Amino acid sequence: MHDTDTRRTYRILICDLVGLRPGPDGRPDCSEVRRHVEQAGCTFHDGDAIVAADIGGGGIHFVYRPDLNTAEDFVAEAGDGLYDAVIAAATVVPADTVFPEGGVRIGAGTGNMQSRSWGGGSGAGGAAPLMNTPGINSRATAQMVMKAILRFLPDLPFDLLHERTVSGRFDTGRDLKDFPTGKLEGRRIAVLGYGNIGREVARLADAFGMRPVIYARERHRRWIEAEGFGYAATPVEASAGADIVSVHLGLGAADPPTGRFANAGLVGEAIFDAVSPGATLVNFDRGELVDAGALDTAMGDGRIRFAAIDADIFSDAATGAVSGPLAPYLPLVERHAGRLLLLPHAVADTDHPSRVAGAKQAVDQILEAIRFRRVGNLKGDLPDGYTAVPGRAIHGIGGVSAGALAGVAEDADVVKQLAYTTGRLHDFWTRLAAAADAEERQALCAAMGDGVMLDVNRQAALMGALGLHGPFTGKPRD
């Protein structure tokens, strides 16, 4: 440890569930993370069975309190500086809490990590490091985006057709004409944001034959186009003529005087004017990104036919009062019944394997920061006394690091296979380009086409299995 006094006691608060699947007792099972903590030489405490202030005797102690639902509860537990660090997922870590050894958010966005110890959700300033676990829930979230799209499109009413069929009130020859629909293939989807989730959504949409157009910063353009996606310089440009808009931008930085986030309300009238009439909106990012009033108007006049929003919502146990980013959408439900789907920020937070993997990674990152002053997956500024190290990556998620690329050489057979297929493909394309005329090209393709397409498919499959697709990050993998 950086502190040579091994008698020091560290207390780390885990304030969200680290297992979602029910265990033998019917409660969400945290046993996998408990074992991980214990294997790291630390102690895991069930917060219901211990008072954190009573923990002493040296060592690193993780206190599991996933029941801190309100700011008042959180401050009562941790507001006096009792804990050295915190691990959170969806729970808001209030600004007036102190964690001198840092915090980790399970997932990518850190807007809920508001402790002044690291300067708030952006991690700008402060004496402690703020970290995240990017990519942990990217695939689960992207798959839920596709589930929302498929709920609405193609708009074939399965439930109605099933009910009429089993009740004997449907004749295929007579009635099928009353249910015209259209496939997803060929539809334009605007993906706003080229982070891990946005890129996964684009890839899934592409697999369905859709035409992804991605809004991102200019520096991402060559990688977006290299993957076969369209690039747009602005959200409105991406949304022009779009049949579907999927939002993955994050809230951006907060303005200190107002507390308003840079991207709040970004999806509003200008985008709704640009889309194809009757478009579908999916916002499984942050509720504040969409102007709820503008969405109400757009759904009323037909510019937006369907919408799905996933955001936090809170209910006061005593009064029943509802608050949170999803609250402004509640009045829209009655006016747009059957066309508006509201979810309680469940999309990214209900996949058990993702939560467990993210929690284990968060434990490792906190321990590395405490023991060695090394910070991976840093958000914001690096505090004095710490060293930044390469962040951990999920296989196939995000970009390709130099370390991942170099690591292929560890398997000589794989390198040999890649070199062999690459050489064969190079030979074919060189010969095709040098062919004298169309007749010679046709003959060459007839003779070599079978082998060429086998090599193309094998190469693509192997590169995918190795996770070698997407932008190059230039950073070695730890």
UniProtKB/TrEMBL annotation:
Lineage of producing organism: Bacteria, Pseudomonadati, Pseudomonadota, Alphaproteobacteria, Hyphomicrobiales
Keyword Hydrolase set for record: no
Kindly list any coiled-coil regions of this protein: none
Q: Which UniProt keywords apply?
A: Oxidoreductase
In terms of PANTHER family, this protein maps to: 2-HYDROXYACID DEHYDROGENASE-RELATED (PTHR10996)
Q: Where does the D-isomer specific 2-hydroxyacid dehydrogenase NAD-binding domain lie?
A: 163-311
The protein's matches in InterPro entries, at most eight in alphabetical order, are given as: D-isomer_2-hydroxyacid_DH (IPR050223), D-isomer_DH_NAD-bd (IPR006140), NAD(P)-bd_dom_sf (IPR036291)
GO MF term set: NAD binding; oxidoreductase activity
Origin superkingdom: Bacteria
What's the short name of a Pfam family annotated to this entry?
A: 2-Hacid_dh_C
The question of whether Oxidoreductase is a record keyword is answered with yes
Protein name as annotated: Phosphoglycerate dehydrogenase
